[in-house]
Each structure stands twice: as structure tokens, then as C-alpha cells.
Specification:
heterodimer; A: 467 residues; alpha/beta; Aconitase, domain 3; Aconitase, Domain 2; five-stranded parallel sheet; 16 helices; B: 203 residues; four-stranded antiparallel sheet; four-stranded parallel sheet; 16% strand
Chain lengths: 467, 203
């Protein structure tokens, strides 16, 4: 039985089997941000340890940064305290920090790939569940908690149970208007928000093969929303070309040698999987969530479920979600009014996402009752977008053009929903209260769909968008 | 402090039943309470928004039921702790006084985080969960040696991966000491990795 990329990379980084059955896994790249690290550094100091591998540790500030007024000190005292703590810790332990003045700050899962830190065959850990994003490069990338951040700082290792690998093939060709976001929302809906528990998801098939790295990152990013701690795509020519010339990628002849090594990591055609799933990409439709977890989604023209037709726990969940969202059973999402539109996040805040959204809004106006913001995933994304005039497209249409950060995905800065506002969002979670208002409502969809919803003032079937 | 602080194999106390599947960590600990550089005081905010919503609806959230004060075992629905990797969620439960969570299933990162701080996450079959939901009163004893949750002569079976059970029983749930042990082996792995980072920080 031939192994998968997962097996190869796991075994390369396995230090030993611990008495409890976990593997002690070496972490090749540790990414750090301001929310989940301060307590870890404190624990490190309290125990008299130090940072074992600062050369494999990189930090940025993303969750709490304001996206409008970024001068220091920040207006929010706690945001300033957290940013300062990260700066002090990075200085104390000689950890490179991509801070606001660097021009390289941004959401940690956007920054790693764009700087070429994220490479095939690595193990990548970060105190953030969306670390699965980096799996798009054929890395084993996973979120950890703060005590494990402490473990990695102190030992450059984590103790983890080995995962089974589920191969998910997306065959065929995506119809017009159907994006990577619709692919992953469909996967989560089909397999469940806990379907990936105990698994790493290996994504493949024609649709994934043809995807850009940005699109693959969107898919891998939301693996965790399906319960899979890791998701990855085997490296190919697309992966190699993305990394060529990136600052932290190997250069010159070293790059060619690395590329050869990377391509050899891919799971072979005879690789053995614990489980296989096939989804016909040609049959997918633009997809939008209607509920309070990312598995509660429908095709844009498909009626919402009716709890009366369901039994037991399903009926309870659907009733709770419809009640919170104030949507009736049988409702079709197209035409649902929105008050807020948010384009950004580690799921869909990269340059291609902004291009797709800008193509929809060019020459249009945001509906008068809608508050619409664009938050680039990183300072580099923002600069690249401005270089091609996308900021003007958004501004002319009435969007606010912001600085880089996590922003309204989880509302740890001052970008948030108010009351029970309905928000069309290109982010990753529609949990109750996720966007900062305990009664706020989130509809997850692709960036182009968010853009169209902002203009129309209601959820739109992008396939029928003809302005 | 040593790595093996203490065994966590037995919890005795009252149950707190929290109905509903897929309770995410944003609900356990809303993001605005993550704006801090310590975990101190998080217990005050556990389920803050759900509790406020219940009050606004004239209901009482399970964490506000007076009889639940001092409960040490939380019984929850399937896929408990899904979503964000924020350790603030299990930290808040532990600091509130919960020593074990019993549920049909757990999100993986949550269960890992909980174990790392000595908070037990034990699985329970759906029928046993239903039995508890019907009547959770009285004093219960959770026993990771016997893998049971018991009240008097009533014994419900618990399940958890042997690795987590071992970590909690042996007191090795805080893994750092284990990971620093035999560090020469770690250095050998580091030396054989084909990648490292050479770009300057001004790259």
C-alpha cells in the first residue's frame, strides 16, 4: 500500500511515539499572532524555558488591529496592550514580526503563503483553527490552542494523534458563478460539520487540479468548519509557480531542487485512503449559508429545510437556526435583504477575491441601506489591489476601503454588526454572535456574491447578475 | 511546576446539562472576551451571549440555574466545542468549576486543548446521554479507571481515546515536559528536515 502525502510528511516530522499513543511531531514552521500567544509566552517564562527555534517562528498582528485608524497607540486600550505584548515577546525572543510598519502585516494565513514561508512538505502550526489554509501547498497545517503554542515555543514540537486521510475528489467542471467557496460549503454540508473529526482531508480531482493557489487556500481554509483539523492539496506545477521568487522560498538552483522534492511528495495514484468521497463539481450551484453553522447551507435557489419534515436532533437544530436567523422554512435565499456586506478574511481576502468582487461592483452603487466594507487580507494584498485600481472601484461604488486584518470575520476590532443586522460575508463562520453582535446574522457566500448583494441590497443569484 | 502535575481520573459532583448539538467555542467564549493577555477572569463570561439571550427571553440558561452553582460535570450535545481553536473556551469552563465535559462527541481541537489543561472530555453513547437528559439530579461520579459515569447503582459507559485517557490518568496531560525529554531525538529530526528559512527579515 502506497502512502499519501500525509504519511510522508507526518513520518518525516515524527520524533517518537509518546507513551500515551500520540506522536511527538516536529513543527517546521510556527506562526504566531497576538490573541493566542501572550499567555503562552507567560507560561514559558514562568517555567524558565525559552523559545527553542526562533528561526522557525514568525509573527504578525491581525485579529485586533483596527482597519480604519491604525496609528499607535490604538484607540482600544486592550488592542494596544495585546499588540505591545506581541512586540515585546518577539523582541525578547528574536522572533521576526510582520508588524504594521513592515508593509508585510496581515492575516497570518494570508501572510505566510504570500511571503513564501508556507511550502510543500512542511508541518505548520499556529494558534488559530484556520491554519488548515496552508494545506493548499501540500503542507500538514493545523490549529493549536495556547498551551500547545507554549509547547511549540518551548520544544518546537506538539503531541498529536495521527489522523486518517479522507480523499475528496471534485470532478468535472464548475458551472459559471460557482467558486471555490461554493465547493467547500458544499463539502461541509454533505459531510457534516463534524464529519472530518479524526481526518485530514486530501482534496483532488479535476476541479481542484485547475484551481489557483488562492482558490485552493479557500477550500483548505474551511476544512476545520467540516471538523477536519487539516486539509491539503498535493503540490503540482501551480504550487511551484506560486512560490517561485517569493522572499522566503528557496532561490535559484535551490528553488529547482526544492521544486523537484515538493512534486515528489504528492500522493501517488495507488495511495491508500481510509475513506473516499466523490462530488460532481458540474452539478454545484452558488451556495449560501442560512443557519448558525457552516454546514447549514443551500444552493441559492433551493428552499430552506422545514423542521416539520425532519425528526429528532435535526428538527431541533433547524428550528433553532431558523429562529435565530428569523428565516421561514421553505424560504429561498435569493432576495433576502441584507444591511451589511463584508469582503475579506483568511478565507476570501486575497487579491483574486478582491478582483472577483470588483468585477461585480464596477460602475455600480452599494444599495443605500447597506454598509459595505472591503478588508484586504494583508498589506501586500491591499497594495497590489491599489496598484490595479481596485480600491477606486470599491470606493466609487460606496464601499469602505480598509487596512488589513481579520476585522468583521470575528469582530475583535471595532468592525462589527449592530443589533440583528444581516450580513453577507465572504468569511468562514456564521455562528451566533460571530460578527460581534449577540443577535447579528451572517450569510456566508463567495466574494462575488457578497459584492452583488451589497449592490442589490439583497442576496443575489450571481448566475443571473446582468447589470 | 512539573509536567505531571496530577492525575485527573475521578470527578464527583453534580451535573449541568446543556442541550443542543454543535455548541461552538464562539458561544462558549465570545471573541470580545479574548481581548486580554491572560486567562484570568474568563469564567465570568462563559456563555455570556447565550445567557443574556435567555434572560431577554424570560428563560434561565443552564449556567444560571441556581441549583447548578458548583456543578462539576458538564453534559453537552454532540460535536461540542466546534469552531475556533481558542483555548479560552475550555479555560473558562475549567475556571468556572467544570472538571469534566461529557458529550456524545467533541470537536478535535477543543478536546485536545481541554486535555492539555487537565479538563476531561469523555464521550457517552447517545442512549446514555438521553438517560441523563431525562434525569440528571443527584451526585454523580465520573471514573476514568472504570470508564463510567455513575449515580448510586446506575453506571453509564464512557468512551475516550486511550491517548487522552492515559494522559489524564497518568497526570501527563501537560505535555511540554514530555516533549522536552530526550531532546537529542528532536534535534535529529530538525537536522534531517530539507527546509529552513534563510531570507532576512527585511526580505
Amino acid at each position: 500500500m502506497a502512502g499519501t502525502l500525509f504519511d510522508t510528511v507526518w513520518d518525516t516530522h515524527a520524533v517518537r511515539h509518546l507513551p500515551n499513543g500520540h506522536t511527538q511531531l516536529y513543527v517546521g514552521l510556527h506562526l504566531v499572532h497576538e490573541v493566542t500567544s501572550p499567555q503562552a509566552f507567560d507560561m514559558l517564562r514562568a517555567r524558565g524555558w525559552t523559545v527553542r527555534a526562533p528561526h522557525r517562528t514568525f509573527a504578525t498582528v491581525d485579529h485586533i488591529v483596527p482597519t480604519r485608524q491604525q496609528s499607535r497607540p490604538f484607540g482600544d486600550v486592550m488592542a494596544e496592550t495585546m499588540a505591545t505584548a506581541l512586540e515585546q515577546n518577539c523582541r525578547a525572543y528574536d522572533i521576526p514580526l510582520f508588524d504594521l510598519p513592515s508593509g508585510q502585516q496581515g492575516i497570518v494565513h494570508v501572510v505566510g503563503p504570500e511571503l513564501g514561508l508556507t511550502q510543500p512538505g512542511m508541518t505548520i502550526a499556529c494558534g488559530d483553527s484556520h491554519t488548515s489554509t496552508h494545506g493548499a501547498f501540500g503542507a500538514l497545517a493545523f490549529g493549536i490552542g495556547t498551551s500547545q503554542v507554549r509547547d511549540v515555543l518551548a520544544s518546537q514540537c506538539v503531541a498529536l494523534p495521527r489522523l486518517a486521510v479522507r480523499r475528496i475528489d471534485i470532478d468535472g467542471t464548475l458551472p459559471p458563478g460557482v467558486t471555490a467557496k461554493d465547493v467547500i460549503l458544499t463539502i461541509i454540508r454533505r459531510l457534516g460539520v463534524d464529519g472530518g473529526n479524526g481526518y485530514a482531508y486530501e482534496y483532488g480531482g479535476d476541479v481542484i487540479d485547475r484551481m489557483s493557489m488562492d482558490e485552493r487556500m479557500t477550500v483548505c481554509n474551511m476544512s476545520i468548519e467540516g471538523g477536519a483539523r487539516m486539509g491539503y492539496v498535493n503540490p503540482d506545477a501551480t504550487t511551484v509557480e506560486f512560490l517561485r521568487g517569493r522572499p522566503y522560498a528557496p532561490q535559484g538552483a535551490d528553488f529547482d531542487a526544492a521544486a523537484t522534492r515538493w512534486l515528489a511528495l504528492a500522493s501517488g495514484p495507488d495511495a491508500s485512503y481510509a475513506d473516499r468521497v466523490r462530488i460532481d463539481g458540474s452539478a454545484l450551484a452558488p451556495t449560501v449559508t442560512w443557519g448558525i453553522n457552516p454546514g447549514q447551507s443551500v444552493a441559492i435557489d433551493e428552499p430552506l429545510p422545514d423542521p416539520a419534515a425532519l425528526r429528532g436532533a435535526d428538527a431541533v437544530s433547524v428550528t433553532e437556526a431558523l429562529g435565530y436567523m428569523r428565516l421561514p422554512a421553505g424560504h429561498v435565499m435569493a432576495g433576502t435583504p441584507i444591511q451589511v456586506a463584508f469582503i475579506g478574511s483568511c478565507t476570501n481576502g486575497r487579491l483574486s477575491d478582491l478582483r472577483n468582487a470588483a468585477a461585480v461592483v464596477r460602475g455600480q452603487r452599494v444599495a443605500p441601506q447597506v454598509r459595505a466594507i472591503v478588508v484586504p487580507g494583508s498589506q501586500q494584498v491591499r497594495a497590489a489591489a491599489e496598484a490595479e485600481g481596485l480600491d477606486a472601484v470599491f470606493r466609487d461604488a460606496g464601499f469602505e476601503w480598509r487596512g488589513a486584518g481579520c476585522s468583521m470575520c470575528l469582530a475583535m476590532n471595532d468592525d462589527r454588526l449592530h443589533g440583528d443586522e444581516m450580513c453577507a460575508a465572504s468569511s468562514n463562520r456564521n455562528f451566533k454572535g460571530r460578527q460581534g453582535s449577540p443577535t447579528g446574522r451572517t450569510l456566508l457566500m463567495s466574494p462575488a456574491m457578497v459584492a452583488a448583494a451589497a449592490v442589490a441590497g439583497e442576496v443575489v443569484d450571481i448566475r443571473r447578475w446582468t447589470r | 511546576m512539573t509536567a505531571s502535575a496530577s492525575s485527573r481520573a475521578h470527578v464527583t459532583g453534580r451535573l449541568l446539562v446543556l442541550p443542543g448539538a454543535d455548541i461552538d467555542t464562539d458561544r462558549i467564549m465570545p471573541a470580545r472576551f479574548l481581548k486580554a493577555i491572560t486567562f484570568a477572569g474568563l469564567e465570568q463570561h462563559v456563555f455570556a451571549d447565550d445567557r443574556a439571550a435567555a434572560r431577554a427571553a424570560g428563560l434561565v440558561h443552564p449556567f444560571d440555574v441556581p441549583a447548578h452553582a458548583g456543578a462539576s460535570i458538564l453534559v453537552a450535545g454532540p460535536n461540542f466545542g466546534c469552531g475556533s481553536s481558542r483555548e479560552h473556551a475550555p479555560q473558562a469552563l475549567l475556571r468556572w468549576g467544570i472538571q469534566a465535559v461529557v458529550a456524545p462527541s467533541f470537536a478535535e481541537i477543543f478536546a485536545g486543548n481541554a486535555t492539555t489543561i487537565g479538563l476531561i472530555c469523555a464521550g457517552i453513547p447517545p442512549e446514555a446521554f438521553a438517560a441523563i437528559a431525562a434525569d440528571a439530579s443527584g451526585a454523580w461520579h465520573l471514573d476514568l479507571d472504570a470508564l463510567t459515569l455513575s449515580r448510586g447503582a446506575q453506571h453509564l459507559p464512557l468512551q475516550l481515546p486511550e491517548s487522552r485517557r492515559h494522559a489524564l490518568r497518568s497526570g501527563e496531560w501537560d505535555a511540554t515536559g514530555l516533549l522536552l525529554d530526550r531532546y537529542d531525538e528532536v534535534m535529529r529530526v530538525d537536522a534531517r528536515l530539507p527546509y529552513f528559512f534563510t531570507a532576512s527579515r527585511n526580505a
